[in-house]
Amino acid sequence: MIGAEAAVAFYRQGLGAVEVFRNTLPDGVILFVELQLGSGRLLVSEETPTLGALAPPTLGGSPVLILLEVDDPDAVAGRAVAAGAEMELPVQEMFWGERYGVLRDPFGHRWAVTTAREQLTPDEIVEGTAARPYPPATG
Known about the structure:
- This protein is of the alpha+beta class.
- The protein has one domain (4-131): Roll (2,3-Dihydroxybiphenyl 1,2-Dioxygenase, domain 1), CATH 3.10.180.10.
- It has four helices and seven strands, in the order αβββαβαβββα.
- The chain has a four-stranded mixed β-sheet with strand order 4-7-6-5, covered by helices on one side. Strands 1-2-3 form a three-stranded antiparallel β-sheet, with helices on one face.
- The longest helix has 12 residues, at 4-15.
- It is elongated and about 55 Å long.
């Protein structure tokens, strides 16, 4: 099992997170570490089955895709991969008007790194969905 300290280190190095607050149980188990990540917050905890805190490997994967909007998704994805993430979908221009990519961190969590390029209407996005395959071809 990879612990919360490793996760906090990855999120700092790979995604630029800043630690805001840490709370530990009397036995030293990390109850949570609150991280500032862009304009949002992320809580990281040790896997603690007695508290219902289970990690993606224990669950057989993660059903969640965490969206991280950044100024430069290419740079963030590159930094995350250098820190140990795996790229699932390379960062590229998408038909819905964003530069977008998907990566999996070393703990099994999936992240979409994105930035808006153009503001499309819902009708334009639906038209683009029908006209282009997802995920777009790479290469």
